[in-house]
Design goal:
mainly alpha; 526 residues; two-stranded antiparallel sheet; disordered N terminus
């Protein structure tokens, strides 16, 4: 099926202007939702440090508690590099990141519209795709934080769209550009590996003849692999590992299954409509059933959509195959990562939004084409269903906007901004060495840096740290020489027995010299 031409230039321009208007509305939504700035988390500290050190010519790294710049390997450099580029305008680094996210939300609205329009060959569907993104509570929430997901959505979304267009037009520069963007998506988030898998499988499945299949795969890899290989070799030389993650089995627990079900549900339905499940066993069963139903439904839709016509070419666009594969592949990569690579990953919105967005674009593209030649009443019913979901989505989105607008998010919230412990740290003399369980807070909210308190277990692998004893000895030596140990949320930490043991071990031989409602300060005993 070839791309339908606009019936008139006026119709084309009206559609384009409306889609651009939706993108501009998206920019305004994020601006309204983040009056104080983008939400800040532990990861935000690493991205900002990476951007600042790149801008200063110190390389991609973070600034340790002693002021040394140490190489970053756990977080790929794509997002920090983009912030550093915007920072060239002279904006302060957090403001540069906010401007970047504003533009990225508008761009992702456009990509959502263009993708659904390409899948369906419909200008109306293109506007529906834009509306889907701009009215999404999840998309608004994700773009309101200083994290790499908005840039990953943009890079991966454009890569998939260009690859889909190539599979019908066969113009190699499109595939070369898709390869470069896929590489950048991986260098923004390691889970970009899912884009590689989806594009390669789709190329091999969609294109006729093995010569064309292998030639296309070769072009894609030639443009997508060099950056990834260079980055991997850099990390390997620094840490002996390409992504700073080690293989270890840590199965997903019931709490994470509960979070995953809740966040999956609220993409499609309002949270108040979510059914209640019994404790642990119910969440596991619910998560397994949802995963099985989604996977089965996607595979069935792919099978029905991918039917050769009399000319031997698929009757449905390769974009459907590509996005269906990506939705499943991304989910599989996340599950594998959480189970074997990084137990600190959670099923929060920012982690699952790529598979949710690509999945609903695939579903709407398939539905649009499935009812295109059906009776009018069926098309009307499908349209009413989609309109109802958009209306529910917009109601949730408005609530999310107001909630975000009222206060800063994460470490930028009022409770952190007026923290007595933070104010105490701000007044410390320059050069004072600090150890803390909230080192990113100190980096983000003060003009100081801090070392992270050593922990006996690595939160990523859930394995004992071999260097814990040595790090603890270094901490105690520094404290003897005047360093401070500052523990935030001290009382909350003591509620867990394992934390009580850890804090007692950390502060052995020290005395509390200051105590606030949200933290406590230890120094060497006199």
């Amino acid at each position: 099926m070839s791309m339908a031409k606009p019936r008139s230039p006026l119709e084309f321009w009206i559609t384009a202007l409306v889609l651009i208007g939706l993108a501009a509305g998206g920019v305004w939504i994020i601006q309204y939702s983040t009056p104080i700035g983008l939400g800040l988390t532990n990861d935000s500290s690493a991205y900002l440090a990476g951007a600042q050190n790149l801008r200063a010519g110190a390389g991609y790294g973070y600034t340790s508690g002693g002021g040394e710049v140490k190489p970053l390997t756990h977080f790929p450099p794509g997002y920090s590099l983009a912030i550093a580029v915007v920072n060239l305008s002279g904006l302060e680094v957090q403001r540069a990141a906010r401007l970047l996210n504003l533009l990225l939300f508008g761009f992702n609205v456009l990509i959502g519209g263009l993708t659904l329009g390409w899948m369906t060959r419909s200008r109306g569907a293109a506007l529906l795709g834009g509306l889907l993104v701009v009215t999404s509570e999840v998309m608004i929430y994700v773009h309101a934080y200083l994290l790499s997901e908005p840039l990953y959505l943009a890079a991966s979304g454009l890569a998939l769209l260009l690859a889909a267009i190539y599979m019908e037009n066969r113009r190699w520069p499109l595939l070369a550009a898709a390869g470069l963007l896929t590489s950048y998506a991986y260098l923004t988030r390691y889970v970009g590996l899912a884009v590689y898998g989806a594009v390669l499988v789709a190329l091999l499945a969609a294109l006729p003849g093995w010569k064309q299949k292998l030639r296309s795969a070769g072009i894609f890899l030639a443009f997508s692999l060099p950056g990834v290989v260079a980055w991997s070799l850099r990390n390997l030389s620094l840490t002996g590992n390409t992504t700073n993650r080690l293989m270890a089995f840590h199965p997903i627990n019931a709490v994470e299954a509960q979070t995953g079900i809740h966040n999956f549900w609220t993409w499609w339905m309002p949270s108040w409509f979510m059914p209640k499940l019994p404790a642990v066993a119910g969440w596991w069963v619910g998560a397994a059933l949802i995963a099985a139903l989604v996977a089965a439904g996607t595979l069935l839709a792919l099978k029905r959509a991918w039917r050769p016509n009399t000319a031997g070419y698929p009757a449905r666009q390769p974009a459907l195959l590509l996005y269906g594969l990506y939705a499943l592949g991304y989910a599989a990569v996340i599950l594998a990562s959480m189970t074997f690579m990084d137990s600190s990953t959670e099923f929060e919105y920012r982690i699952i939004v790529p598979t949710l967005l690509s999945g609903i674009l695939f579903l709407l593209g398939w539905l649009w084409q499935a009812v295109a030649r059906r009776p009018a009443w069926l098309r009307a019913a499908a349209l009413l269903l989609v309109a109802g979901l958009l209306l529910l989505s917009w109601q949730d989105a408005r609530g999310q906007m107001e909630k975000l607008h009222q206060d800063g998010q994460g470490f930028l919230s009022l409770s952190w901004r007026i923290s007595k412990t933070v104010q105490y740290i701000q007044n410390l003399s320059p050069g004072r060495i600090i150890y803390s369980n909230r080192a990113p807070v100190i980096d983000l909210l003060t003009d100081k840096t801090a070392y992270v308190l050593p922990t006996p277990v690595d939160p990523v692998t859930q394995q004992p740290r071999k260097d814990y004893a040595a790090n603890l000895a270094d901490l105690r030596e520094d404290v003897k020489n005047g360093a401070l140990v500052i523990i935030f949320q001290h009382e909350a930490l003591l509620a867990k027995p394992e934390n009580r043991v850890w804090i007692a071990e950390i502060t052995q031989g020290m005395v509390a010299i200051e105590e606030f409602g949200d933290g406590i300060v230890y120094s060497a005993a006199p």
